[in-house]
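Entry for the shared binder. Reason: the reviewer on the internal report wants the predicted structure included alongside the sequence.
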Amino acid sequence: MSPLYQQIKKRITDSLVAGLWQPGQCIPSETELANLYKVSQGTVRKSVDELVIENILIRRQGKGTFVASHNEENSQLRFLRLTSSENKKEKLDSRLLTFEKEKANSSLAKLLGISSATTIVSIKRVLTFNQKPLILDFIKVPAASFRGLTPEKIIEKNGAMYRMYENDFGIQMLHAKEKITAIAANAETADLLRIKKNSPILSVERISFTYENKPIEWRLGLCLTEHHHYASELD
């Protein structure tokens, strides 16, 4: 049997999955949770500590503990690590190129833990920073998890996909795994990013996960790095 604090952590996570506490909402205090689960406050604190480390919960001094949300200014682009090399503040815009439904291929099905017969939504878009193309983005998500997702919704959100997932579909992206490779731009990519064919670009393949470590989105970003760099903080 797992340690008691891990059991309480699982119960808190189950409550988040069930929507008992919404993103951005303050959860009950540690004392209230201890009474609810009939355990010590120390056990609850250890459970909450782990959820904070995992960016599922956020502590705010003097205010309480809140469910993490992509609506917060510093979380909107939490997984986008491409940064201006000149530290300029840049305006992000998104141009939708294609929106299609298709069957998942075997490799994608394996990555997302779905069957190869599953219908997925396939999105292609260009992200611009200060009106200059910077990232060619390919996104694939299970259609069943995002019923009602339309091209109009994506255009309306203007690039804030994770905020849309959270607000419109109740799906909170919590962490991601990435694979980064240096490649040469093919003809299509070069045309869309307004660069020469075979120019060096950065390929960032990402799998994003929701509660209970469930993979829910595959994404491939083809990025220009002439005036930007990939920034990552290591603990």
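Summary line for the report: The radius of gyration is 20 Å.
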